[in-house]
């Protein structure tokens, strides 16, 4: 019994030491759902680059989940050195709640701290059996739409705004008609998952729904992983330019003494290897000239509105997704029916 | 269970045929009931279990082995076993202490304590995880104070251990309390009157009387500790290779389209539970008498 207890104590002690006092530098990148494949390769590339440049080893740890819930975890104390989330509003939330990120973080890196962008497209089943061509088809009674919950998922908020942008154009800004359209779209949603990857799984593996509103990169990845004979991508007439931003969590990095390497990590996203990897994983690179032209050819041309058309996230976030905001007003009747 | 009851009530002394007792049924009804029970077990238990193993080996043995020996998977396995060991040990100590206090002594607040022990059963695991985030998180009541002193609880191993202990809290105590209550205090009193001190009484009288129930509780506690998902998911932060337990790792792999790998790790988890079950069954068979006394609630 005593020996067992000693072994337990030793195991516990070893586990604590291993996580706290290892010799090499460890970075924690807290990210959103669809970036898993991108950062797995990017982390390897950066570790190699850092080794060559400084002779030091760096290990990068990842945590993935819905963008909103990941931000919540960082606020609650998850010790991220860098956050690479789905939208500005989530990083703003961390900045406001903890002060660990400076308020002007967007200006610290190029292109408003968005090294890559993406957009929202439709993923449909092979042959497009419901003949979904554009946003108006999503409000049809016979179409089931899969999209995550805007309260927890960043991608879901882009989805919502993309639909709104199309309706705004279609109904020439008539707010009542826009709301009616977006409302009937969300009445067609049978499951609201918490994150983009959860929605993809619902659509792809569980076979629920006719259309998945998806990040462009996530849709391409589903095609690549599961075969183009099962799904196809439909590009709507209008979509939104989604800018997933990155930021240094200064408060955490300073305390851990990782500021320099964490900053270099983020800047590496803007270099040739970073931009090439982004394009390879179906993100639209900020500097296309640094990426592989063959990768760039895969991106369709479409009309993109930006978040600035909604007054930026500072206005759009509380207006559409705050407590009792437009989404809550629209979605409540949907859950009753 | 059904089989057990039937043999209990029908086989030992079957009454004369004309005096058919209420519990002996016509043979065809027995067959129907047994078939239903077996079908139910096959469809809801065996089929999914078989599916896990079939999927796990879909990519071949080499793929299976590489999925469970890959560094992140190894960390997850190690973490799960460590957490389960600590949680079981803590709940063993607590369970014995609580059961002893409740069964052998009278004190104020006893019924409250008995009720509180059951609390983790009635609370959703997600809430169990969240309360620790509320308590020890950076925005929580104790988190900032601990943070200043460099103690990290949530999104680290201590948090996972805490959440697991909370969820598996009742198992040992719930097994022991009814048995100890039934055994009463006569033997302890005899031991004390013969000059044994409290500790000796506990080690040589009380403990041997409850050892099978204790083992049973520990096994159940262990099975649940290894498999806990909800509470741990909230508090782990899901850092790969650091705070990912086996159940979380399965979910991550599944979400990354790595289906065979996900099922490989899942099969390992299932195997651990099966081993636990096998040990339990073996003990029941080997020490049937001792356990029959113990399991009478």
What would you note in describing this structure?
The complex is a heterodimer of chains A (337) and B (297). Chain A is 48% helix and 15% strand. With 337 residues, chain A is an alpha/beta fold. Chain A has a four-stranded mixed beta sheet. In chain A, strands 6-7-5-8 form a four-stranded mixed beta sheet. In chain A, strands 4-11 form a two-stranded antiparallel sheet. The model of chain A is unreliable at 4-22 and 333-337 (pLDDT under 50). With 297 residues, chain B is mainly alpha-helical. Chain B folds into two domains: 25-56; 60-294, MetI-like fold (Orthogonal Bundle), CATH 1.10.3720.10. Chain B contains 16 helices and no strands. Chain B has helices spanning 2-10, 27-56, 61-69, 71-104, 110-117, 119-122, 125-136, 143-148, 157-168, 170-183, 186-193, 198-227, 230-236, 246-255, 259-286, 288-294. The longest helix of chain B is centred in the first third of the chain and has 34 residues, at 71-104. Chain B is globular and about 65 Å long. The two termini of chain B are 15 Å apart. Classes of the chains: A alpha/beta (337), B mainly alpha (297).
